[in-house]
């Protein structure tokens, strides 16, 4: 079994992890969007980090979506979460 931690378990003072996983997390969300899906529940508890990389879970609220605006807003929201964890200014 692969061990995971949620993004919410990474404390702001530990900037090594958020900075190194930001691009992977955003790329993972972009892949979901390219598949035509809006996750619609992006939050730190739904972003898992482990040896295989970043996994986004809990698609219970997800919907088919072709709206670039909605996808862009969701991407921006995840980016703001990641920047907050890394202690960067939005």
Give an account of the 3D structure.
The protein is α+β, with helices and mostly antiparallel strands. The protein is built from two helices and five strands. The strands form two sheets. Strands 1-3-4 form a three-stranded antiparallel sheet. A two-stranded antiparallel sheet has the order 2-5. The chain is globular and about 30 Å long. It has a single domain (4-86), classed as Orthogonal Bundle (Transferase(Phosphotransferase), domain 1). The chain has helices spanning 16-34, 68-86; strands at 4-6, 37-38, 47-50, 53-56, 63-64.
Main sheet record: 3 strands, antiparallel
Please state how the strands of the largest beta sheet are arranged side by side: 1-3-4
Span between termini:
36 Å
β-sheet strand percentage? 15-25%
Query: What count of domains describes the coordinates?
Result: 1
What structural class should be given to the helix and strand makeup? alpha+beta
Please state the average pLDDT score.
84
Radius of gyration: 13 Å
Q: Outline the low-pLDDT stretches.
A: 11-15
User: So what's the CATH class?
Assistant: Mainly Alpha
Number of strands: 5
The dominant shape is globular
Number of helices: 2
- CATH homologous superfamily - what is it? Transferase(Phosphotransferase) domain 1
Helix content: 40-55%
What is the CATH topology assignment? Transferase(Phosphotransferase), domain 1
Instruction: Write down the secondary-structure element order.
Output: EHEEEEH
**Annotated CATH architecture:** Orthogonal Bundle
């Amino acid at each position: 079994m692969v061990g995971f931690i949620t993004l919410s378990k990474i404390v702001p003072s530990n900037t090594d992890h958020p900075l190194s996983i930001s691009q992977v997390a955003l790329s993972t969300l972009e892949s979901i969007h390219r598949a035509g899906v809006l996750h619609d529940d992006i939050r730190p508890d739904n972003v898992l980090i482990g040896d295989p990389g970043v996994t986004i879970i809990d698609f219970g609220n997800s919907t088919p979506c072709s709206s670039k605006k909605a996808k862009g807003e969701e991407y921006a929201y995840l980016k703001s979460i990641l920047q907050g964890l890394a202690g960067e200014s939005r």
